[in-house]
Recover the amino acids of this structure.
């Protein structure tokens, strides 16, 4: 059990600290709306990963390779949509943190739904659970249910703690000048466009 817990902690750190679409969206949300509204975004993997894990463990082996390619293209397009929304907010906003352009900020439910859509349309969770976490989870469950649960708790406890830490650290950047905030938001838009383009390219070329 201790070996699986150690692996869960290590993989959770890797998943949380590796730059990706979810981390970028978390940073953009924390800059725009503050840490209180953004924490729910960090919890989105708890909702989206359940069906993903079931798909990986039960069904994915029966799907053609084109399945991941379709997910990659769809995820890239959705990430471009989020980048466009962030760009409009950064361009129109006089003060980052109150909705960006002065309009009412999205509800917590709206932020969560966007994060869930992005997770479902990102190939990362499917590949990660299909190649690394899934086999380890099965290994733990083959020993005992508690070993499997311990692995999941170690992984998600570490992963979510890092995401929440990123939100709290990014929230402090909102005290910078308006110009500095907009520059950071524009940089995040560029990153999201880059991630989206890479997903689409990988989906097209295989």
């Amino acid at each position: 059990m201790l070996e699986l817990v150690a692996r869960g902690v290590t993989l959770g750190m890797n998943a949380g600290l590796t730059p990706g679409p979810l981390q970028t969206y978390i940073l953009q949300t924390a800059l725009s709306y503050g840490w209180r509204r953004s924490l729910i975004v960090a919890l989105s993997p708890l909702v989206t990963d359940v069906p993903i894990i079931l798909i990986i463990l039960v069904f994915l082996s029966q799907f053609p390779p084109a399945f991941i390619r379709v997910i990659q293209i769809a995820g890239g397009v959705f990430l471009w949509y989020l980048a466009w929304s962030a760009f409009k907010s950064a361009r129109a906003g006089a003060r980052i943190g109150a909705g960006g352009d002065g309009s009412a900020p999205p509800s917590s439910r709206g932020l969560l739904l966007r994060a869930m859509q992005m997770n479902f349309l990102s190939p990362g969770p499917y590949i990660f659970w299909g190649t690394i976490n899934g086999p380890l989870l099965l290994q733990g469950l083959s020993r005992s249910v508690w070993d499997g649960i311990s692995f999941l708790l170690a992984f998600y406890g570490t992963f979510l703690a890092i995401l929440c830490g990123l939100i709290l650290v990014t929230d402090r950047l909102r005290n910078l000048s308006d110009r500095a905030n907009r520059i950071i938001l524009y940089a995040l838009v560029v990153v999201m466009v880059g991630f989206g383009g890479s997903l689409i390219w990988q989906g097209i070329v295989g």
Remarks:
- Residues 94-102 have pLDDT under 50 and may be disordered.
- Residues 24 and 191 are 7 Å apart (CA to CA).
